[in-house]
Amino acid sequence: MTLYGEKSPPADDRPTVQVTAVTWPDDGPAAGPAPVPGEPEGGPRRTGRMRMLLAAGVTGGVFAAVAGAGAWAYAGDVPRGTSVLGTELGGRSRADADRELRAELERRAAALAKPLTVTVDGRTAEVNPADIGLAVDVPATVAAAAEANAHPVSRLVGSRTVDPVVTVDAGRLDDALRKVLGDQAQGMTMPAISYQGTTPKLVQPKPGLALDPQRSAEVVRAGWLAGTPITVPLVESHPATTPEELDKLVAELAKPAVAAPVTLRTNKGSVKVPPAAIAKSLRFTADKTGKLTPSVDVKRLRAALGDDLNAIEVPAKDATVTIAGGRPTITEGRSGQQLDTATLGSDLLAVLPKSEGREVTGELKPTPPELTAEKLTSLGIKERVSTFTTRFTGGLASSRSQNIATIAKDVDGTVVLPGKTFSLNGHTGERGYAQGYRDAPVILNGKLVPGVGGGTSQFTTTLFNATYYAGLEDVEHKPHSYWFDRYPAVIESTIFWPDLDFKFRNNTEYGVLIDTSYTSSTITVSIWSTKIYDSVKTEYGPRRNITTPKLIHLEPGPSCIATNGINGFTQDAFRVIKKGGVVVKREKFTWRYDAEPRYVCGPKPS
């Protein structure tokens, strides 16, 4: 006869266990007659009592066995029979499982560090796991093992394998795969709208095949521990803006936007925004998904309107510092009024699709000067730190001298704040006839020819030397192709719009004032600030690799400028900066001068 133990209470999730009863030799039939009253104590009545006691004992034993089995099954945090990478973690605490898994990874370290063989679009290369952040996340793996198949019966019997949690740096992996792929990827053709004049020009969107970082990460994570070659797929991607949406954007915005001007009204008057200015400021920008979004670039709009804004705006004026009586004198600036651009772009964008009612209202707001007298006073511009003078001939009546004076006046009084970089091209802009410059000799293609702005290189050299002897940081300069004895060798600089520039950085904690002055034969640049160095001097190395000029005959005419020729050479110059009586910086400058040919305006003698 088979008996079943009582079911455990609902709160106990231990399994029901099947139990078989034990029969003793003196037991009678399982279904004997009921005891007769008055019979002796050892008869059927006593036997029944013994049978009941035995059953109770067996049942208690069964429950003890069940309890023991449950305790064994629930021992540790990780279910029995659970393994990771062939290592049994079942029955262990999380801490023990963590240690055991790390030990297994240490045993496999050499294999896990081997380069992966990765193929992308037919191109194969090896990638180091460490370079892309491939690793097993031990805590996450142990947590997954502890939660694996925790059903009550499953904790008693069976086994299960848990895959390790693998991590990878998707960004670094993508960079590595792009190197493997090279230029084979067929990227999406992003939609675009631009203007040629006021005519919209389109680029239609097209799908492409490219790496998908998340998909790549999935494939590499799955294939790493297997130690087999990995093939990473390319995924077809489509720009978010469709051809139909692009055409609609052109028809509903790009074309009507430039069909007529927009009137910008303020309490100081109004300004017409012409279609050409709209075309220059209306931008259609595609994000990395290919979604095209229109916007108005207010900076471009202001540049396109130019002087027209003077009708409604009053520019702020910065405080200035000038040298009077041998010391700096500060003059307070003034506030101005400027268009509030916070909502101007969105307001303008809203009316561009319209054929009527093309008006926006602009608000003028007070604009404080960028540089106030208080701030200027705090910059420590108190003494002359350096000065440099070069000489020129011809007096101020010559075009070359006029150009030197023009650029000197433009730069005079410029303040360079601490940490900022000064660009001479950036400060003056293009130096053409409209800016007051004249034709004078310039070096072009190795010879002197007339050109607008000739002579500004002499000012550049003078400014370079003033900043050089102030100990300021040289950012960009280029010496002339030929050496002219009016300049110090090596420590000189040419300039040419827009390709050749001169830049220096104010690498001090004080403001820097550029003070310029000129006479009929000299140009002088002085730097005013707070003196921080004892001295700045130049030590020259000997000239070497000396070459002599060639004789070249040129076609006579207005563009021919005769020269006597100058030797070429290479030379080193060392800027030596001292502070506190010791050398704190020694910088080397080297330049190779070509030999300037001796140009003769006329044919060779027969």
UniProtKB/TrEMBL annotation:
InterPro entries documented for this protein: Glycopeptide_resist_protein, Vancomycin_resist_VanW, YoaR-like_PG-bd
The answer to keyword Cytoplasm applying to this record is: no
- By what name is this protein known? Vancomycin resistance protein YoaR
What keyword terms does UniProt attach to this protein? Answer: Membrane, Transmembrane, Transmembrane helix
Q: Where is this region: Disordered?
A: 22-47
Question: What is a single Pfam family found in this protein's UniProt entry?
Answer: VanW
Domain named YoaR-like putative peptidoglycan binding: residues? 242-360
